[in-house]
Amino acid sequence: MMRILMLPFLAFCFSCSNNQHCNPGTPQKLLTIRLDNNGSISYQHEVLLEGLSKNCDSTTVMTAIKNYMENNASDTPISSVAVYNSAEHFDSGETLSQPKEFYGDCVVSVWFDATSGKPREFDFYNYKGNRDYEGVRWKR
Q: Of 28, 60, 89, 103, which is least packed with CB atoms within 10 Å of its CB?
């Protein structure tokens, strides 16, 4: 009888602990970078969601990105949103090139289709700041 009761309890504990770092706070804009591609102007938004784990599921992260995009008060067309879990390595003195360690804090960079507004590409970085996945689907 004890085994039967213990199994659901353990499953509940593990499911809660796996999502404890997937509750992002309020998005804070770090930087907006103007992108000029053959006369077409768009912007890359770099957003801080402190404490967000690199292991979060796509639903949690994409919901946070959607909330950011819907509440973005600027008139800058968004071509991509890069989500960071820390600003520890952010250099506010640099506008275009951040230190490589900054990208180690990047959870994901999502590129959007200009006409439909749907995600078209995902870029993931490892803890050293190197891109370890680039593709049309979520990494995990």
A: 28
